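Structure ticket #2291
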Amino acid sequence: MKYILVALLVLGTFPSFSQTQMVKDEIWKMEEQYWKYVQAQDLTNYRTLWHDNFMGYPSNNIITGKDHITDWIADLYKDKNKTFTIELVRKVENVFDDIVIVLYDVNYTWRNEKKEVIEKTYNKITHTWKRTEKGWVIIGGMGALISKTTIK
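Resolution: structure written out below.
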């Protein structure tokens, strides 16, 4: 009986699989929202996803803080003759209490004004999220261009 009580106490201190999965799903929805903000060019709401002390290493190889976190979005839209769609490929989320590390791929398909596919890029993303009194925010991240294929 004593061993059963100890086992129950120990097991009760760890989050259940369903609790962990709920956090993973919540964070993945935040990642999807991140990309909706990018596609809508909603820089105001996009900035709310980031901690004030954020530090990241994006695929442009320029380490940045929150003050320049939206710079890359303007670059996506500077050529009015090109449009893009994205595909998010969920890989893994690792939960550590109030910290979650997310790894995923972002694949861009670029089209010209005739709607012809002209380029595809494949990227790896990692974000580290922290639960704060205001909710989940990104405290760190890194992006890497894996490959770029020009079609036309």
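Closing remark: The chain has one domain: 2-150.
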